[in-house]
Specification:
The structure holds two protein chains of two kinds.
Chain A: E1 5-13, E2 16-17, H1 32-42, E3 47-51, H2 56-70, E4 77-80, H3 86-95, E5 99-102, H4 104-108, H5 111-120, E6 125-134, E7 142-147, E8 154-159, H6 160-170, E9 174-179, H7 191-200, E10 205-208, H8 214-222, E11 228-231, H9 233-236, H10 242-251
Parallel strand pairs in A: 1-3, 1-11, 3-4, 4-5, 5-6, 6-9, 9-10, 10-11
Antiparallel strand pairs in A: 1-2, 6-7, 7-8
Helix pairs in contact in A: 1-2, 8-10
Chain B: E1 2-5, H1 12-21, E2 26-29, H2 32-37, E3 40-43, H3 49-58, H4 64-70, E4 75-78, H5 80-83, E5 86-89, E6 95-96, E7 101-107, E8 117-122, E9 124-125, E10 143-148, E11 150-154, E12 160-165, E13 169-176, E14 179-182, H6 190-204
Parallel strand pairs in B: 1-2, 1-3, 3-4, 4-14, 5-7
Antiparallel strand pairs in B: 5-6, 7-11, 8-10, 9-12, 12-13, 13-14
The chains are: A alpha/beta, B alpha/beta.
């Protein structure tokens, strides 16, 4: 049976993991390669590096980080952040990434999804969508796509569900949906958003934003319909290990990958 | 020396990295003569069977592979590198493949769920192959990483070394004599994937002392 994936996400800036990772008392809590190896050993099913580097000079560092990681860690690796062209995608894939994640650049140039899918295959292209809830009294909830999330998020006027449908038509092989309302709150995924996405997505959906506990991941999978769950802080701060999450899910009948004996 | 065939497959660099990790002596090549004289051959693959066949024909490799496999050269096909071994493929219109293993490459059934299958699923090793050296240290039911929309519907069940369930129990590993092929990506399947690659290297005799990760 296909298992549900547990995916830690690391924010990387100029070759260093930001915010730090506090689990396992690692010697270098800021080295993405060492942390990727530690998460691999801990049973992560996949890894995401999100490059929050601002300058293009420093982006070359990310290529080197991906190369070093790919030589050490033999599970799927997705790289996102700042990828604006097919060349940018190629550089990361050649360095050893298995998938690239497109966000802001795809909103401004949707053909980037189609070009990437045509050249590298849909399985390489993850469309990452940051969405914020729009509540109008008396109407069902909807969600608007934002770009440049971080310090200065910009509204796009795009409806998240329509944008995701379009992205899949263009060739996105996976969707990562991040709730900006839930992000950082640690009160669980926005399940209504997740349900709305999984109802229309013919490709796997990765839930992101808001996880505070294994139970939140369970709900994202069972109630939200997510194929994979992504989390950052609950793993990085050592609140829960990957094994804790997998055990919690397995005990409740969610198929998870068994961690190999080393 | 193991020849890893370079015909433009997207996963070539990661297959090479994983083989290097397990200490395999290897050469990356698109030269039919190098492939012909190699001790063992690995054919990686991601993408479509038709494109892969076109590349292999263009490079003059398509006619070499049946010959070296018939001659008993140890061979490992990965993902599309497995699928092209079959007689034909239904992907983007029926077309012929290498016809080394009788059968047809078919699309996973819609009843399976989302297509492509992306993620970790189990290999159920068939009883005749439970003690095969390729599976040394890999338990029956081990999780490995798949990314595919098509599967190998083989005519001869006796080559099926493992099956995986996704809408149907499709062959995820086939072994015939010195030929092995896997539908999943050992280069992305963590410790068990590296173990399988190390097992292949040892089984092929291309290296005398190769350890797992």
């Amino acid at each position: 049976m296909l298992t549900r994936r547990i995916i830690p996400c690391l924010d990387v800036k100029a070759g260093r993991v930001v915010k730090g990772v506090k689990f396992l008392n690692h010697r270098d809590a800021g080295d993405p390669v060492e942390l990727a190896a530690a998460y691999n050993a801990a049973g992560a099913d996949e890894l995401v590096f999100y490059d929050i580097t601002a300058s293009s000079d420093e982006r070359a560092i990310m290529v080197e980080v991906v190369e070093r990681t790919a030589a050490e860690v033999f599970i799927p690796l997705t790289v996102g952040g700042g990828l604006r062209s097919v060349e940018d995608m190629y550089r990361m894939l050649r360095a050893g990434a298995d998938k690239v994640s497109l966000n802001t650049a795809a909103v401004y140039n949707p053909q980037l999804i189609a070009e990437g899918a045509r050249r590298f295959g849909s399985q390489c292209i993850v469309l990452s969508v940051d969405a914020r809830r729009v509540n109008v009294p008396g109407e069902p909830p909807r969600w608007e796509v934002f770009t440049h999330t971080g310090a200065n998020p910009r509204p796009t006027g795009l409806d998240a569900i329509e944008w995701i449908k379009r992205g899949i038509e263009l060739g996105a092989g996976e969707i990562c949906i991040n709730s900006m309302d839930a992000d950082g709150a640690r009160t669980g995924y926005d399940l209504e958003l997740l349900q709305a996405v999984t109802a229309v997505a013919s490709v796997p959906v990765i839930a992101s934003g808001g996880v505070g506990s294994p139970h939140d991941m369970y709900r994202g999978i069972v109630e939200g319909g997510a194929d994979a769950v992504l989390a950052a802080s609950i793993f990085h701060f050592g609140d829960y290990s990957i094994a804790d999450v997998k055990q919690y899910l397995a005990e409740r009948g969610v198929p998870v990958r068994q961690i190999s004996a080393r | 020396m193991i020849a890893v065939i370079n015909y433009g497959a997207g996963n070539l660099p990661n297959v090479v990295r994983a083989l290097q990790r397990v200490g395999a002596p290897l050469v990356v090549t698109d030269d039919p003569n190098v492939i012909r004289s190699a001790q063992a051959v690995v054919l990686p693959g991601v993408g479509a069977t038709a494109d892969t066949m076109a590349s292999l024909r263009h490079l003059g490799i398509a006619e070499v592979l049946p010959a070296i496999i018939a001659a008993g050269t140890p061979f490992l096909g990965i993902c599309v590198g497995m699928q092209v071994l079959l007689s034909e493929s239904e992907e983007f219109g029926l077309h012929s493949c290498l016809n080394i293993i009788q059968g047809t490459v078919r699309r996973l059934p819609e009843s399976a769920g989302k297509i492509p299958q992306i993620g970790w699923n189990q290999i159920h090793i068939t009883p005749p192959f439970r003690d095969h050296p390729l599976f040394d240290g890999i338990p029956n039911g081990a999780d490995v990483y798949f990314v595919h929309s098509y599967y190998c519907a083989v005519a001869d069940e006796s080559v099926v070394a493992a099956r995986t369930d996704y809408g149907l129990a499709f062959p995820s590993v086939i072994i015939r004599n010195r030929l092995a092929a896997v539908q999943f990506h050992p280069e992305k399947s963590g410790d068990y994937g590296l173990r399988l690659l190390a097992n292949f290297v040892r089984w092929s005799g291309a290296s005398d002392s190769v350890g797992a990760s």
